[in-house]
Amino acid sequence: MKKNSTKKSDRKLSRKEKSRLEVALIYLILGLVFVVIFYPLLWAFAISMNTTTNLYSASLSPENWSLDNFVWLFTSPRSDYLLWYRNTLFVSTVVTVVTTTVVSFTAYAFSRYRFRGRTNGLYAFLLLQMFPVLMAMVALYILLNTVGLLDNLWGLILIYIGGGIPMNAFLVKGYLDTLPRSLDESAKMDGAGHFRIFFQILLPLAKPILSVVALFNFMGPFMDFILPRIVLRSPENFTLALGLYNFVNAQFSNNFSRFAAGAVLIAVPIATVYLMLQKYLISGLASGATKG
């Protein structure tokens, strides 16, 4: 009896040790991920507070912390930072609203309707996801030049919208497929039409996935450099990524501290939108759709 009890206690101890090791490993991985993410951000913030303009002479803990770089961005007549910020906010807002709206209607049609060409349309969405927008930039450049939208923010907006619809529509369609059709049938028995079913029943349940689509589409223009570089030419039409490139190119003599200050401020609208959508991003509204 004593031997059996000691064996059971040893097994319990081994299980506890395994669980502790697993927890320790999880915390170790989280710590490494935190360092990988936080360390570059810390350097960017520290460089933005440095008084030196050289990247190699900048320090992670500068002796004299200064907000001169941030003040220069908003007050200097040589800085077009506010104009670039406004352009980027305009592009991001329009792209987010239009793409999310079109994607929601498109995904609803492919999820709930059965029509001729539906299967081929889904295959087309999958096929378009395989090819990046840059592969079509020559054709898009010629098309924008033909219709007079080259070096125009609306031309850039159209490219973002067109490139974001296939992938996001397929993503939202897969989410809507998980919502039970019994919701639609019960609503139809109560006399609800297609638009009422979509707006009052499915759309509230699809807020988590639509929030993800909105967040990603809002973030894209803030971080994209290649497409604005190809489409835009005039400094007054630059987005933030393209405009900040001038700070480390030639116009401002490789001023990395001002570049870092401008890059730090990019996080403000993205973080604001994330906080606004956070309750939808982490909630499982669809899980309780048929309960009660």
Give a short overview.
With 292 residues, this protein is mainly alpha-helical.
List the helices and strands and how they pair.
Blueprint: H1 2-48, H2 68-75, H3 81-112, H4 118-129, H5 137-147, H6 153-177, H7 182-189, H8 194-205, H9 207-223, H10 226-231, H11 240-245, H12 256-281
Helix pairs in contact: 1-12, 2-12, 3-6, 3-9, 4-6, 6-9, 7-8, 9-12
Please describe what this structure looks like.
By secondary structure, the chain is mainly α. 72% of the residues lie in helices and 0% in strands. The protein contains twelve helices and no strands. It has helices spanning 2-48, 68-75, 81-112, 118-129, 137-147, 153-177, 182-189, 194-205, 207-223, 226-231, 240-245, 256-281. α3 runs parallel beside α6, α6 (153-177) runs antiparallel to α9 (207-223) and α9 (207-223) packs antiparallel against α12. The longest helix has 47 residues, at 2-48. It is globular. The two termini are 51 Å apart.
